[in-house]
TrEMBL record:
<protein>
    <submittedName>
        <fullName>Anaerobic selenocysteine-containing dehydrogenase</fullName>
    </submittedName>
</protein>
<dbReference type="Pfam" id="PF00384">
    <property type="entry name" value="Molybdopterin"/>
</dbReference>
<dbReference type="InterPro" id="IPR006963">
    <property type="entry name" value="Mopterin_OxRdtase_4Fe-4S_dom"/>
</dbReference>
<dbReference type="Pfam" id="PF01568">
    <property type="entry name" value="Molydop_binding"/>
</dbReference>
<dbReference type="InterPro" id="IPR006657">
    <property type="entry name" value="MoPterin_dinucl-bd_dom"/>
</dbReference>
<feature type="domain" description="4Fe-4S Mo/W bis-MGD-type">
    <location>
        <begin position="2"/>
        <end position="58"/>
    </location>
</feature>
<dbReference type="InterPro" id="IPR006656">
    <property type="entry name" value="Mopterin_OxRdtase"/>
</dbReference>
<keyword id="KW-0004">4Fe-4S</keyword>
<keyword id="KW-0408">Iron</keyword>
<keyword id="KW-0411">Iron-sulfur</keyword>
<dbReference type="Pfam" id="PF04879">
    <property type="entry name" value="Molybdop_Fe4S4"/>
</dbReference>
<keyword id="KW-0560">Oxidoreductase</keyword>
<dbReference type="InterPro" id="IPR050123">
    <property type="entry name" value="Prok_molybdopt-oxidoreductase"/>
</dbReference>
<keyword id="KW-0479">Metal-binding</keyword>
Length: 732
């Protein structure tokens, strides 16, 4: 007997609604949910392959515990017993900083990953937190923190109403967007052009997104900040800046002209490899558009001046008056957003409150650079990381110099991985705790609703009940917190009830909370939900901005539409001044370095990554339906460079950079500009001890092995994964 169930897709940031077909407890098909209030039936190949991922035979079905040097099957009790015996003892002997925590991208795609890691960090008391953000989006968090006082106050382009969209370093037709949650991003771009709007794409590759554009500019990789600075300079110099009401909300507008005075289109033209006329034309079009939005992502973040580029994206939105207005870039309002506060001065945002032990890298948003993890494990001395808790993370492939990190992980006293696979990282663990397949987990998007292009709320209960010895992912996290706290054996729901009690105690004394003045115990009794995570979600909805409850979402299985994005300034500002701080000190101090880059001689050949529609980092290479076709780990080389270097299509080449060399297959194509080569991210599934049979059959090359980890954006600690120099030699 078959049936259907609704599920929000957890495989990328688009969060599309799916209709799953189920038979005998297995997912036999997945299609787009046409009644979903947000995605309206859109689905990509990743979502269509939901069933294959869900039933992957390589998924771990139960815990593994290392005994006599080998990982062996164990019971859940044995797994948590091992953690309880090891982690608290290491903390007692060596201190809280002897434990590190690594959080990977999949954390933000699950309820458990959103609700429990902060509690885990609090229980451990460690400052050694490393996340995928410093391989991806940290520059945007830092620039938003400095501008608006809140690193999560990230404006997103109003795709459905804008007249002019400028995209930099983004390929949403294939990646479905990032820090801009938008189902059917391709359809939204086509609709923009159909209503007479303009799409300009800035990318060194002719991506599928660039192919949709009215104009495609292909500058030299890594020059995004210089190009954006020249655009801002032109707006100011030609008196095209029109911030409107934003001028009263901002401080530092008057100083911008002097700060950006050196970045004329003529000055940046050689470094960008764009003409001054092209730059001036783009600035004038941006200013003349009735509404416009500038949006930059991976390609403009994972470069040497990623934070400056992220800052300048919003500077342009402010100078053109397009920040916080329909058709421009607005701040979403999630249904679980905390209660608002009156406009006015806040606590602000600080960088470098502490630094890493070995390299002295300053923290950003409470996190240290992932590129510094290996040295923190390897280097002897007080505070050395001896134990590591990795949650949904595979930094051996995703961080620079995976070989070094591979060796470092092998030297840990103890390691725990929460991961459904024995992959390149989790194979080093002493305990592996596998969450169940996604069909067996409830879902609510705590993170991505805060970056969505339309306000909405959707909840998916588990489509398939847990079976056998499986354990709910939220329970795994709760038990892990109890184990490292020395409380193994306490009921896991105690973790959630403690959070609920603490939250209610604060809410009833907060005059801005809808629960102000209530009785905490009575309010706790009113909460709906059969599990601790559901009760926590219900509480967050009740204290959120829309007067919703979990019951409301249960009664609306296709979601609740909360309307288009609306202006929210000055309410979102948390800066010490209570205004947009347009030229904060850390940014001003970094501009001379960018100015000096104007005189640097560009490298002859640099590398950039690329995205595939049927892939997401290193997650999905073990799903047969998502392998092959265009999803291949090949090195894209322009025909002119191929001829100059003696490379042939289908041949082999050795690519070399500071971190080492790789042998890769060559694909000659004019989709990449001359002087640039492209190799995708997330490959390299050839390490002994992993259990990824499909991925290992076509392992590809780990592009991050070309890096030694020393290249970082100084303000955010983000690894430079794009625009670094390489050398190529042909192989027989």
């Amino acid at each position: 007997m078959s049936r259907t169930a609704l599920r929000i897709c957890p495989l990328c940031e688009a969060t599309c609604g799916l209709t799953l077909t189920l038979a005998d407890g297995a997912v036999t098909g997945a299609r787009g949910d046409r009644e979903d209030v947000f995605s309206r039936g859109f689905i990509c190949p990743k979502g269509a392959a939901f069933g294959a991922l869900d039933s992957d035979p390589d998924r771990l079905r139960g815990p593994l515990v290392r005994r006599a040097g080998r990982l062996r099957e164990a019971t859940w009790e044995e797994a948590f017993d091992a953690i309880t015996a090891a982690v608290p003892a290491l903390v007692r002997e060596y201190g809280a900083q002897s434990v590190g925590v690594v959080l990977g991208n999949p954390n933000v795609h699950t309820m458990a990953g959103a609700l429990y890691p902060p509690l885990l960090l609090k229980a451990l008391g460690t400052r050694n937190l490393f996340t995928a953000s410093t391989l991806d989006q940290m520059p945007k968090h830092v620039s938003s923190g400095l501008l608006f006082g809140d690193p999560f106050a990230i404006p997103v382009p109003d795709l459905d109403r804008t007249d002019f969209l400028l995209l930099l370093g983004a390929n949403p037709v294939e990646s479905n967007g990032s820090l801009c949650t938008a189902p059917d991003f391709p359809g939204r771009l086509k609709a923009l052009r159909a209503r007479g709007g303009t799409l300009v794409v800035v990318d060194p590759r002719r991506t599928r997104t660039a192919a949709l554009a009215d104009r495609h500019l292909a500058p030299r990789p890594g020059s995004d900040a210089l190009l954006l600075a020249a655009l801002a300079h032109t707006l100011i110099e030609e008196k095209l800046a029109a911030p409107g009401a934003l001028e009263e909300l901002s401080q530092g507008i008057g100083e911008l002209g002097a700060a950006l005075g050196s970045f004329t289109p003529e000055a940046v033209s050689p470094a960008c490899d764009l003409t001054a006329a092209e730059i001036r034309t783009l600035a004038r079009e941006l200013a003349a558009a009735p509404t416009a939005a500038v949006y930059g992502r991976i390609g403009s973040c994972t470069v040497e001046y990623g934070t400056l580029a992220s800052w300048l994206v919003d500077v342009l939105n402010i100078l053109t008056g397009n920040l916080d207005r329909p058709g421009g870039a607005l701040f979403p309002l999630s249904a679980t957003a905390p209660p608002g506060r009156p406009a006015g001065p806040g606590k602000g945002f600080a960088l470098g409150r502490w630094s890493s032990r070995v390299g002295g890298h300053p923290e950003a948003k409470g996190e240290l650079p992932m590129a510094a993890l290996a040295e923190e494990i390897e280097t002897p001395g007080e505070g050395r990381i001896r134990a590591l808790l990795a949650v949904a993370a595979n930094p051996v492939l995703s961080a620079p110099d995976g070989d070094r990190l591979d060796r470092a992980l092998a030297g840990l006293d103890f390691m725990v991985s929460v991961d459904p696979y024995l992959n390149e990282t989790s194979r080093h663990a002493h305990v592996v705790l596998p969450p169940p397949p996604p069909s067996r987990s409830a879902h609510f998007d705590f993170a991505f609703n805060g970056f969505a292009v339309r306000n909405q709320a959707r909840y998916s209960p588990a489509a398939v009940p847990l079976e056998g010895e499986g354990m709910d992912e939220c329970e795994i996290h709760a038990r892990l917190i109890l184990a490292v706290s020395g409380l193994h054996g306490a009921p896991p729901e105690a973790v959630d009830e403690r959070v609920i009690a603490d939250t209610l105690a604060r809410a009833v004394t907060d005059p801005h909370s809808p629960l102000h003045g209530g009785d905490p115990q009575e309010l706790a009794r009113l909460l709906n939900g059969t599990t601790g995570p559901e009760r926590r979600l219900d509480l967050m909805l009740r204290t959120g901005p829309y007067d919703l409850t979990l019951d409301d979402l249960r009664q609306a299985p296709h979601g609740i539409d909360l309307g288009p994005l609306r202006p929210r300034l000055p309410g979102v500002l948390k800066t010490r001044s209570g205004r947009i701080e347009l030229l904060p000190d850390p940014i001003a101090a970094e501009l001379p370095r960018l100015r000096a880059a104007l005189a640097e001689r560009p490298a002859a050949l640099v590398l950039v990554g690329r995205r595939h529609l049927r892939s997401n980092n290193s997650w999905l290479h073990n799903v047969p339906a998502l392998t092959g076709g265009s999803n291949r780990c090949t090195l894209h080389v322009h025909p002119h460079d191929a001829e100059r270097l003696g490379l042939v299509d289908g041949g082999q080449a050795r690519i070399t950079a500071e971190g080492g060399s790789l042998e890769v297959p060559v694909e000659v194509t004019d989709a990449v500009r001359s002087g640039v080569v492209s190799l995708p991210h997330g490959w390299g599934h050839d390490r002994a001890g992993s259990r990824l049979s499909v991925a290992a059959a076509v392992p590809g090359a780990n592009v991050n092995q070309l890096l030694d980890g020393t290249r970082m954006d100084r303000l955010s600690g983000t690894a430079v994964l794009n625009g670094f120099p390489v050398e190529l030699t042909p192989l027989p």
